[in-house]
Every structure is written in C-alpha cells, then in structure tokens.
Amino acid sequence: MSEPGAASGGGEGGTPGGIGSRLDRLWTPWRMSYVGTGRPEGCIFCVKPSEHRDEEHLILGRTERAYVLLNLYPYNSGHLMVVPYLHTGDLATLPPEIGAEVLALTQQSISALTAEYQPQGFNVGLNLGEVAGGSVSAHLHLHVVPRWGGDTNFMPVTADTKVLPETLDQTYRRLRPHFKGARDE
Predict the structure, then answer these.
(1) In this predicted model, what pLDDT tens digit does every residue of 6-58 receive, in sequence order?
(2) How is residue 89 annotated by DSSP?
(3) CATH code where residue 167 lies
C-alpha cells in the first residue's frame, strides 16, 4: 500500500541511487507502537501475564498453567504463542501436567484459527535455544502460525517487510471470543 502520490525518492530516475525505478513507500504507522517500545525488564513471558492487562498485552486466554497471546511480530495474521507460566527454557524437564496444558491450549488455538481464518495448514513449533532461532530462549513458548498457499511473496526478501492484511488489535478481537472459556484476568 503506497501513499497516494508518493512518488519516488530523490536522485535521478526516481530512486536515491539514481537507478531509474520508482521507489514505493509502504506506510504502516500502527507498527511504531511495537517498534518504538523498549523491552520490559525481566522475562517478557513472565512480566506480561503478571501485570493482568490481558487486552493490552494481547493475551487471548489463560488456564491454570499456561496462556495464549498474539505474537507482536507475526509471520502471518493469527500468529500466536502458547506459553507456560513456569519460567524455563528446558523442554526435557517441563513437568508433564504443564506440557499437557500447553498442548491442550495449542489444540484450542488451532480450532480458533481454523474457525476464524480457514487456513490451509499450520506451522507449530518451538525454537529451543538461541542458535535454533529462539529470541527468548530462557522461556519456552510454542508458535502457532496459520498458513495459506501463496502466503509468501517477495516483500520479506526484497524489502525486509511482511505485509499483513489486518492489525494486531483486529486479530485480537476476532480470536478473543474463542478463548472465553479459559480463565480470564
């Protein structure tokens, strides 16, 4: 989505380097609230649920041992995470009752996403350790990413930008009713 009438950057030929192609701008001002905020002190997966500001923190639902929240930097609309309250990065020592609750919330998440978005598939997984891609490797969190045929395009490769058709607030409003049976705070 380009700004109407936003032509090109400077330079000869319409681009800053004078290469001769038009430079379009993708305006996403709502992202500034996510990009411009610093990380909270402490573990984000411990801090967010303890503040009991579920809508603000995009927490969709809670159970006794785990909760579901939207990813602030989603790969696709509906990208969410299932997180145990227990602060651990070690899946091998996660108590079985917590693991069972995380899996049950994952199933509920897939049902909710299927009802709202009708994806053609899902990526579900954990990044265990920083080297495996875990940005918060000290606290387990399971990603649930809905997928559709053709949901990837050139934007992430050429512009380091992911195009999403709705805001996080819109996604939250669509998915929240599917978690009303979970413990609310």
Answers:
(1) 443 444 444 444 444 555 555 566 555 545 555 557 899 999 999 999 999 99
(2) -
(3) 3.30.428.10
Do both 98 and 155 map to the same domain? yes
For residues 91 and 80, what is the distance between their CA atoms, to the nearest angstrom?
19
Residue pLDDT, tens place only, 72-116: 888 888 999 999 999 999 999 999 999 999 999 999 999 999 999
For residues 87 and 172, state if they share a domain.
yes
Domain that holds residue 4: 1-38
> Does residue 71 share a domain with residue 159?
yes
Count of residues in the chain:
185
Residue 113: which of 62, 172, 67 has the closest Cα? 172
| DSSP calls for 111-167 | HHHHHHH--SEEEEE---SGGGT-TTTTS--EEEEEE-TT---SHHHHHS----SS-
Q: Which of 79, 141, 143, 178 is catalytic?
A: 141
Is 141 a known active-site residue?
Answer: yes
pTM as predicted: 0.74
Are 116 and 153 part of one and the same domain?
Answer: yes
